Amino acid sequence: MTAPPAPAVEQRLIDYSAALVRARRQKADWESEVARAAQQPATSGWRLSSPALGTWLLLGVGGLGAAFVAVCRWAWKWRKVALQLIPGIQQFLDAGGDGASQLKTALSASTDKAVKVTIDTAKRSLAQ
Prior knowledge:
Layout: H1 7-39, H2 51-95, H3 100-110, H4 113-127
Helix pairs in contact: 2-3, 2-4
């Protein structure tokens, strides 16, 4: 015949059984949470630390800067042409003379070589 278990041992077995039930319940809750999270689509987005985005931003800013410089140079060249042509034409009008030779002489005297090249380029492009 076996002796009945001691009350302390019996209480420890009951506590162990309750702890085992709690652990299994927590594991089941965790597994269901993982399964639910696996079924949801992943959230995506972009970050400023993306290397590709940084490269495109760098190229875009550099390209805009180069375009801005090119437009400024073009505008400055035509500003220079206008500032040199207007006094030449005004000088011709003030002279009150008649004829294309006087206009050519007045314009030739008031423009430098770069402006003359620009005018010649414009004339050639208009003639084509």
